[in-house]
Amino acid sequence: MFSGVFNLPWWGDVAAALLLTHVTIVAVTVFLHRHQAHRALDLHPVVSHFFRLWLWLTTGMVTREWAAVHRKHHAKCETPEDPHSPQVLGINRVLWLGVFLYVKEARNAETIERYGHGTPDDWLERHVYSRFQVTGLTLMGATDIVVFGLVPGMLILLTQIVWIPFWAAGVINGIGHYWGYRNWSTPDASTNIVPLGLLIGGEELHNNHHAYPTSAKLSMKWYEFDIGWFYIRLLEAVRMARVKHTAPTLRLVAAKPAVDPQTLQAIIACRYAVLAQYGRSLRRVYREELAKLRRLAPHDALELQRVESWLDRDERMLREQERTRLAELLPKSHVLQTMYAMRRELAAVWGRSTATREQLVAQLQDWCRRAETSEIKPLAEFSRQLRSYA
Predict the structure, then answer these.
(1) Of 300 and 258, which is predicted with more confidence?
(2) I need a labelling partner for 326 at 20 to 30 A (CA). Which of 211, 319, 320, 337 fits?
(3) Which of 348, 345, 332 is nearest to 371 (CA)?
């Protein structure tokens, strides 16, 4: 039986398979996702075309289709129009059959027309990559067999074929919207699966991505590592890439007497960081109110214990019974009810697309005035800090 050009031991074949699939993952996260779908960075034409060629050989995916399906996912996230939401379709269907959901949506001409703009449309794309998708996989399979031998080559090809459908279409689209930790209270169910984005090129940091989708860097906390960003920085160092966007960071100045347009701009740009800070204040109030109720009304305290995880979530992500229960229980604590209502008002600022900048500044000024006269110490402290955002 043919043993291939490199007659490797079994562990050598495993290492080769992992290396080859890792290149594919880098192509997906750097080229398809951050460069094509979100325009977070520019790539040198040589790098861009290498990734296109590699993806044709290893996955058969068409750039325009991938970008269109992903952009629609962001536009319609967690709704019946989302191509692959486990909140709508169920975790098992997305995790194990995610690739079929992708293929189904990629065949939707309306999706491709509406969301596939700006992707490569040259001669190679039209006449080779999009027309002969199976040909690339066939060439890669033949190469694997020649290089590694018949059996190892076929197994390596099989690994390459299933790697992205399982990890990207299944795990990221499934578990990444179902289970994990959240840094940001986004209006969807996105999660960070693990803090070390190594296995899937940094895509494990999915909640970070949904908070700041145009950021070329997916790691946000000191304990997170995005290997995709590491490769982008390497490409930048040799002038083969240029980063266009990263997540904004808050800059603090001396607290202003009142909110001004610059403060408004900072709050809107860093809205998830603002909500995260407010969430810490809200949890502090919750603990204080719960301790007070345990002394004065133990039964009320017991009931309020059930709502802690709902307080800092976007209302759109609460089920109807959860919203109803929250409305019933919050009046047991006037302070907690006020904090929750003020959070809703603050989050509505960047949702009022019809309001002028002057109107939004006036609304924020009124919000700060009421917060600082509320006699709720954490709320007043948060408001004063808000006036220092720049």
Answers:
(1) 258
(2) 211
(3) 345
